[in-house]
UniProtKB/TrEMBL annotation:
It comes from the Bacteria. This is Serine/arginine repetitive matrix protein 2. Keywords: Membrane, Transmembrane, Transmembrane helix. Residues 19-40 have a biased composition (Low complexity). The chain crosses the membrane at residues 64-93, 197-225. It comes from Planomonospora parontospora subsp. parontospora. Residues 1-40 are annotated as: Disordered.
């Protein structure tokens, strides 16, 4: 018995004798590529294509010039503090010096106020012996000073503190001084160079330089920290030429 493997219509015969036709294939789109050809995409997949350059580096941070400028300012503040302190001391020394001078044997009338810390000064050669006191019934106290103080007036005459003057109330008082032997001396009433009067100068001496140095330290720390962070960020930047997805591997 023979079997017919073909028929005029190109079908195949089944065992039952009914012709079978091959399954119809859907029509292919004209743009379809045969299997094995290069894939066609509407866009390039991530990471595929020309190599990408490295991302821009972060800034290096503030310039070192900020540190240099801050420490120059600190040096200037130190100089300014010394100048203010010295100027204040010299100014107060001129104000403390006697505005007028009197010779031995003269009786001079001066206005004394306990609130102004009056003091008796002498300008004489070293070793000159002298005596001073209140005259004609005026009462007050002349007290020796344990601190040797020298001031210079606006006329350039040096004065040495001889006695602290103590009075109970403000008013006019008469004083007189004498010199032993043939010594020469001049006397006058000024103000005591008290430590409390120098508080402003001392404060300026410490506060102005202290502020400048503290500012320089803060600027130095901030600049160094920011530059260190910038270096770490730059070190973390990838140096490869491919994008973040790496080269395309199809």
């Amino acid at each position: 018995m023979s079997h017919d493997f073909g028929n005029p219509s190109g079908g195949f015969a089944s065992p039952s004798g009914t012709p079978q036709h091959p399954a119809q294939q859907p029509a292919q789109h004209p743009s379809a590529q045969p299997y094995g050809g290069a894939p066609s995409y509407g866009y390039a997949p991530p990471g595929y294509g020309a190599p990408q350059g490295p991302p821009p580096k972060a800034k290096a941070g503030p310039s070192i010039g900020w540190i240099v400028g801050a420490w120059l300012l600190a040096v200037v503040s130190v100089i300014a503090g010394i100048a203010v302190f010295a100027g204040g001391v010299l100014s107060f020394a001129e104000d403390a010096a006697p505005p007028a001078s009197y010779g031995p044997g003269e009786v001079f009338t001066v206005r004394l106020d306990p609130a102004e810390s009056p003091a008796l000064y002498v300008s004489a050669a070293q070793g000159t012996r002298f005596q001073c006191g209140f005259q004609e019934g005026t009462q007050g106290r002349l007290e020796n000073s344990s601190v040797r103080t020298t001031v210079t007036g606006s006329d350039g005459i040096p004065w040495e503190l001889a006695f602290r003057i103590g009075v109970d109330q403000a008013g006019e008082y008469k004083l007189g001084c004498s010199v032993e032997g043939e010594g020469q001396a001049r006397f006058g009433v000024g103000r005591e160079l008290a430590a409390g009067a120098l508080v402003g100068g001392v404060a300026a001496f410490f506060l102005i330089p202290g502020f400048g140095v503290l500012l320089a330290i803060v600027v130095t720390i901030v600049v160094l920290v920011k530059r260190s962070r910038a270096r770490k960020l730059n070190a973390a930047v990838p140096v490869g030429g491919w994008g973040p997805g790496g080269p395309y591997r199809g």
